[in-house]
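Appendix B. Raw example, untouched.
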Amino acid sequence: MGPENLQSLAGIAVVLALCWAMSEDRRRFPWKLAIGAVVIQALLVLALFGLPVLRTALGGVGMAVDGLANSTQAGVAFVFGFLAGTPNQPYPLSEPGALFVFAFRVLPVILVVCALAALLWHWRILQWFIRLFGFVFERLMGLRGPPALATATTIFMGQVEGPIFIRSYLPSLSRSELFLLIAVGMACVSGSTMVAYATILRDVLPNAAAHVLTASIISAPAGVLLARIVIPRDPAAEAPQALDPAQAKRYESSVDALIKGTGDGLQIVLNVAATLIVFVALVAMVNGLLGLLPDIAGGPVSVQRILGLAFAPLAWAIGVPWADAQTAGSLLGVKLVLTEFTAFINLGAVPVGEISERTRILMTYALCGFANVASVGINLAGYAVLAPERRGEVVGMVWKAMIAGFLATCLTASVVGLLPAALFAQV
């Protein structure tokens, strides 16, 4: 273990200290859970990247993502023709990279993955994985049945979709459990966006799909831990609950699953596209105003530079070399203030060699979560429908949950930074 690995210990300490400072009861710090969650994260990474069988499986994930992206492009090309970036262009190309159009290369992948996820759910394959993860959260992290199931579902389905599966239990959850669901939802991403992020990064990060998948899985324990620190568990407020099989989503047939999954995916695609348009436009407006100021330190003032300076210390604490800290800090700020999609696009646009491979890997883990300002609105809207009687509580805790979710991915990156770099070169 070198100095750069030990540097990541500072990230773990900073994240835990910040959450303790936000805690509603600082005297009840869950030391056992803190140690257990970090150990679970480290063991999961070591197993996924170190055990030959799982390492081979992760390599297969990358091949599957490439195959999925190529298959999706066939469908996109059928509908949009040469706009999909096919080799047969009706005009000469001066810049081949211009063929990568986000609307035609990334968003359609979300559509296809949502349809496949619905089909896998109908075939009970996805349900088996969710029950397995739910059992792990229940046994190893002390969650009750319904919150454990929702946490496991969130890893694969998304921040609002997870709680849908325990909708009838939401009114009776304790305040700590409700906060935990929101925080974990912001600490993870959905299966559809995992594939999209891997598609964005695959040209600049080897085994991008393996890293993105691992990031979302191991950020769930981090989200549970930080949520328990901010709002400690109150066993007296937890009424006995048993899972009701009728809560599960149902489809009439495989075709019905594909059609409804496609419809759900379309809503996600439209939300992602609209959010990116609005937030990128707002940043451009702010940058236009900041451009009226005189240059500082040899460059124009911009949102990206301000965020880079503000988050550079946190990026360094995670384990990023100081030479890359401002670039990494800017990515963290963009993820929090804008969206993780914008941050991943920016990370994918950083040329190979401009930042170290260690920085790129750590930032992949630090960015892989839904914690951003836009998700605050998504959660408020979602829980207003799922549990309208608890809307006031959600309003009071959603911003804290966003910070906890943001710091959870930073904790994940710090744990990854503790491990030897040779581990990730084996996939």
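End of appendix B.
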